[in-house]
Write a structure and sequence with these properties.
Helices cover about 40% and strands about 15% of the residues. The chain is of the alpha+beta class.
Length: about 400
């Protein structure tokens, strides 16, 4: 069998793949470029066994693992692209042969376990280590991120970026499989915000919080962040009830706020059952403003300008060729603004530009690489979208 940490990390990677709508996950198709992770680990273990003498000490076994894993296989620390969320996916790390402390440590832990070593995963501050008892009964630590260097406890403290850190036992406690997987998911959430994913970040992040509700239902911070993101995006998330800190009173208040937000959205957008031919552009299309050159995505339209006369005068609508008598579009712009734009001022682009607007998840369920796909709430307003 395999360790829970290793098997669970593959499950986390598959969940992330589903959030990203990877074809191999969504349609259960084995991609031709997918590394056979179990075969890869077994091959590394086989190579190690061939080099380990029957009477080898624990440290000699570790020396062999270091040679095979880092020199022969070529696993490296990904310092050039550390905050890529793919570094939290075991299969991607084995395929790219680059990773971060936690994923390299999980791989090392699995290899060592298959070779008969008793290792422990250590959730060290801003790092990840393995510990073991050497043949003299002394606890030593493996820095898997730095080619398997062996460290003493005092040397481990030098790894922490905070200088003068106190020597605390908590830093050296063995961590549980759930704690390991929870850290992987938290990393993916954080890294996904630092380096934007191709798909809608709201959808991506909420689905990772959903996984956290299974792994760590007592995690108060995750629950609060998920609630705020859900409310800001006006998306109802039933999985929030799994968090233990969300009791009946909080849940009822949350449901009322989401319902009110949905009603406000329906009031803001008039139901449209068909799209006239003179409305040239489609919901979800990515556009460029001809005059101001910002990029935006369309989430609504009117056959003519529906704003007040005062607004039209302030915005200079009378100076346009077709003035108010042309379609106007509701858009989310790449500068985080929401705008109401005349058709003659827009130019469609197919360059596959993602719009990192905070309300993208309010209207769309994913970005397919070229355009945004309307979510169920938006389709209830523009009902013709359900007809293909």
């Amino acid at each position: 069998g395999i360790n829970a940490e290793y098997g669970g990390s593959l499950m986390v990677s598959r969940w992330v793949g589903a959030c990203l709508f990877e074809p191999s996950v969504v349609h259960s198709v084995t991609p031709t470029d997918c590394v056979p992770v179990h075969d890869t680990v077994r091959d590394i273990v086989r190579q190690c066994r061939a080099l380990i003498a029957p009477s080898a000490s624990t440290e000699e076994v570790i020396s062999v693992i270091n040679r095979v894993l880092y020199l022969d296989f070529g696993l490296q620390k990904n310092v050039d692209n550390y905050y890529n969320f793919e570094n939290n996916r075991i299969d991607k790390v084995l395929y790219q042969k680059k990773g971060i402390p936690i994923t390299i440590a999980i791989i090392y832990y699995e290899i060592g376990s298959q070779l008969g070593l008793t290792l422990h995963l250590i959730n060290f501050p801003r790092h990840f280590l393995l510990s073991f008892l050497n043949d003299s009964g002394i606890t030593m630590y493996i820095d898997c991120f730095n080619n398997g260097n062996l460290l003493t406890r005092s040397q481990c403290l030098q790894l922490c970026p905070m200088s003068g850190i106190a020597d605390k036992d908590d830093y050296f406690q063995s961590t549980s499989p759930v704690q390991v997987l929870s850290r992987l998911v938290r990393n993916a959430i954080t890294f996904g915000q630092i380096v934007p994913v191709v798909q809608d970040r709201v959808f991506f992040t909420l689905n990772l919080y959903k996984l956290m509700s299974y792994l760590a239902p007592e995690d108060y911070d995750s629950a609060v962040h998920a609630i705020n993101l859900s409310l800001n995006s006006q998306i109802m998330c039933k999985f929030l009830r799994r968090y233990s800190c969300i009791g009946p009173i909080i849940w009822d208040k949350y449901c009322r706020r989401v319902a009110q937000a949905e009603e406000d959205a329906r009031q803001h957008l008039k139901v449209k059952m068909s799209k006239p031919e003179h409305v040239r552009f489609s919901i979800g299309s990515v556009m460029i403003h001809k005059r101001f050159n910002y990029t935006c995505v369309l989430y609504g339209w009117d056959e003519r300008c529906e704003m007040s006369t005062d607004w039209q005068e302030r915005m200079g609508i009378g100076q346009l060729e077709h003035q108010a008598n042309q379609p106007y579009y509701k858009v989310l712009a790449d500068d985080e603004s929401e705008r109401y734009v005349a058709q003659e001022n827009l130019l469609e682009t197919t360059r596959g530009i993602f719009i990192p607007h905070r309300h993208v998840g309010k209207y769309f369920e994913l970005f397919d690489g070229e355009r945004f796909v309307p979510n169920a709430a938006l389709r209830t307003v523009y009902t013709y979208l359900d007809n293909g």
